[in-house]
Design brief:
The protein is of the alpha/beta class and about 160 residues long. It has one domain (about 15-160): Lumazine/riboflavin synthase (Rossmann fold). Helices cover about 50% and strands about 20% of the residues. A 4-stranded parallel beta sheet has the order 2-1-3-4, sandwiched between helices. Strand 1, helix 1 and strand 2 form a beta-alpha-beta unit. It is globular and about 55 Å long. Residues about 5-15 have low confidence and may be disordered. The structure holds the ligand Nc1c(NC[C@H](O)[C@H](O)[C@H](O)CO)[nH]c(=O)[nH]c1=O and the ligand CC(=O)[C@@H](O)COP(=O)(O)O. Ligand LW54GNZ2 binds near residues 26 and 84. The ligand Nc1c(NC[C@H](O)[C@H](O)[C@H](O)CO)[nH]c(=O)[nH]c1=O binds next to strand 3 and helix 3. Keywords: Riboflavin biosynthesis, Transferase. One of its GO terms (biological process) is riboflavin biosynthetic process. Pfam families: DMRL_synthase.
């Protein structure tokens, strides 16, 4: 009897990546800086990467667009970029909390990495440091977190039994 076994279906890990960026326009000087740096780093460090950029008015609208991307597009990751400046009421904190929870839910529901850089800051100085500076740049951080998480997810799914994929 032959001990020949059919090879299991190869799961080719394509190095071609598609990443969606969902960014709010509110506080656009800061959010535009986040988008610019994030896309630059994705292009420089991500290899063969296609970026789908989507804009929404404010941070509160980011999760619905991220969920739509997760449901309807074949992306390897979604990056959420926004800047919430604390005002004199609780409004900013409420938005930030709801965005955080919604992004986590989308990531875990669709098993797609969602990178959360919807920043909640106390003032413009903190916003500038994080969006325009070199030391704390959250746009750069977002791009690198997306690329690293894509690699990790690929390793995890590669080592999973094919029936569970
Ligand atoms: N104050 C900020 C907002 N506010 C707008 C909301 O996000 C939202 O668009 C509005 O409540 C309509 O649903 N958005 C930010 O991104 N940053 C802010 O500082
Ligand atoms: C997050 C906001 O919409 C914020 O600008 C609201 O400001 P305020 O708390 O002063 O009403």
């Amino acid at each position: 009897m032959s001990d020949f076994q059919l090879p299991i279906r190869p799961r080719t890990i394509s190095k071609r990546r598609r990443i969606a960026v969902v960014a709010s326009r509110f506080n656009s000087a800061f959010t535009d800086a986040l988008v610019e740096t994030c896309c630059k780093v994705l292009t420089e460090e991500g290899g063969d990467v296609t970026i789908d950029l989507h804009h929404v008015p404010g941070a509160f609208e980011i999760p619905v667009a991220v969920e739509a991307v997760a449901r309807h597009s074949q992306v390897d990751a979604v990056i959420a970029l926004g800047v919430i400046l604390r005002g004199s009421t609780q409004h900013g904190d409420l938005i930030a909390e709801s965005v955080t929870n919604a992004l986590q839910t989308t990531a875990n529901t669709h098993l797609v990495p969602v990178i959360h850089e919807v920043l909640l800051v106390n003032n413009e100085e903190q916003a500038a440091e994080r969006t325009m500076g070199d030391k704390l740049n959250r746009g750069r951080e977002a791009a690198r977190a997306a690329l690293q998480t894509i690699e990790t997810m690929a390793k995890i799914t590669k080592s999973a039994p094919s029936a569970s994929l």
